Amino acid sequence: SKVIWDDLIYRRKQAISMESARENFLTKHCNIIYAGAGSETYIDVKAVQKCKTKDIDWTGREVWVGVDLSMSGDNTSVSFVSEENGVIFADSFAFIPEGRIDEKNKFEKIDYRRYIEGGKCIACGDLTIGYDVVEQFVFDLEEKFGVKVIAIGFDRYNAMSSAQKWDQKYTTVEIKQHSSVLHPPTKLLYETIMDQNFRYTENPLLEINFQNARCTFDTNLNRYVNKKKSNGKVDMVVSLINALYLLQQDRLLNYSGFVAQLIEV
User: Fold this and answer.
1) Which of 14, 63, 86, 108 is deepest in the core (most CB within 10 A)?
2) CB-based contact 96:134 (threshold 8 Å)
3) Distance between CA 123 and CA 112 in Å, rounded?
4) Residue 141 has what pLDDT?
């Protein structure tokens, strides 16, 4: 009824303006578990693991690539996604400075050598990331996996030089790291995982990234993965969301009901 709807709108306005009312609104009316102080766990890793599959045949698939190029001494990630009959297929790779493996193992309590051996983590450079290795990895995707790269999405912070190189061969798209832009793909990833319409091959490091990921809500209740509030590295989740942003624009826009800007380099 109109009375119930008007009450819901009133409560939403209260939740936007008052932190104390936000948890109650999100939990009771939006079915979202809220962790307080504007942040929450993104996705239960157990739900993510239910989407694991033995193998993905990438041959002939169109893919959208997302990159999260970090500070030179931090983790960097490249992810790519494809879609078929409502199911999203994904793969994600991390890059770390080779000269800091032992330091990162100790500080983050993660055995990076295990994931390097598993092929989902690539050590490059010395004390800083070898961006040339990351750039070449993206250039080699088509030949290595038998895919067709449709576009590459990036955050301009730390990525302009690499993006200009990729732009000579591919369409490159700057993705503004703002809640209004990131909310739709963040929501899409959550829903496809919860509905088990997401597929990835064995990737324990990606699962750790999901376990670390925390979301923040802006004043319009748009949510996005917040690196500062997350409990560890989340670069693989961030690059995955960047890739999904492009997929959502190109393939799923007619179904998602939103419009966002694409900015080419």
Assistant:
1) 63
2) no
3) 9
4) 98
SS3 at position 76? strand
Kindly state the tokens that stand for 170.
């591919």
Query: 79 forms bridges with which residues in the sheet?
Result: 66, 92
**Distance between CA atoms of residues 106 and 82, nearest Å:** 35
d(CA 173, CA 220): 25
How many residues can be counted in the chain?
265
In sign, the C-alpha dihedral spanning 227, 230, 231, 237 is negative
| Separation CA 188–CA 88 (nearest Å) | 10
* 3-class DSSP state of 207: helix
CB 177, CB 89: distance < 8 Å: no
- pTM beyond 0.90, yes or no: no
Both tokens of 66, joined, read: 């997302």
27-51 pLDDT, tens digit each: 555 655 444 445 688 999 999 999 9
Task: Round the average pLDDT of the chain to a whole number and report it.
Answer: 86
Q: Burial of 205 by CB count in 10 Å (0-12 exposed, 13-18 middle, 19+ buried)?
A: buried
174-230 pLDDT, tens digit each: 998 888 899 999 999 999 999 999 999 999 999 999 999 998 888 888 888 988 888
Two tokens at 119?
A: 């092929």
